[in-house]
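Standup notes
- DV: blocked on the single-chain target, sequence here:
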Amino acid sequence: MVNLLKVVFLGLLAFGLLVFFTAEKPKQIVANDNVVNLIKLDTLPETYELVGKDETVSRKTLFRTDKDTLIVVGNHDSLAVVKDIPKLFKIDKEFVIVANISSAPWFVKKLFIPSKLEELNKDSNAPMIYDSTGDMVKALNLTDNSKTKFYAYLLTKQGFVTEIYEGIVSQGAMDGTMSKEEKIQVLKPLIEKLK
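- DV (later): unblocked, structure below
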């Protein structure tokens, strides 16, 4: 019994060390206050990996130029809430979700996150970008990858991207701790900004 406990302990220790030493550090984006950061459609990544799709899609295919697009970036708990925007509100804009998971360890990105995101997005017809490299969040100059925060951007028909809202959801929303009414209350200020 003691030997079994030693093996289990050493296995957990080895796994913890593997995570610690192989996890990529989040890339820091340094903002320069003297420079105006103008984000345009052509500064966004050229191709995207979408949740549930085997092939990458081009920027031209994903983002329409004849209609404004709401882009919402979330991570973990916030994704569980923002994915319901089309179900809870009537919006007259295209809607794209960005899963900000670039700071997760590489093996978690490969083994666990894809299936969890597919399950999360299965009843939504909004495309969800699997931003494992962080290219999309870098293009948006977003440095925060908190589990409960989300950031909304508006991509206009003219090709300009502007941050319009920053919101926060309850911890544990991924596990269903937020009711429909609570989700509506959290998302309503964002929807008001779209009018």
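- Follow-up: The helical segments are 2-22, 59-62, 77-82, 85-88, 106-111, 113-121, 135-139, 180-193.
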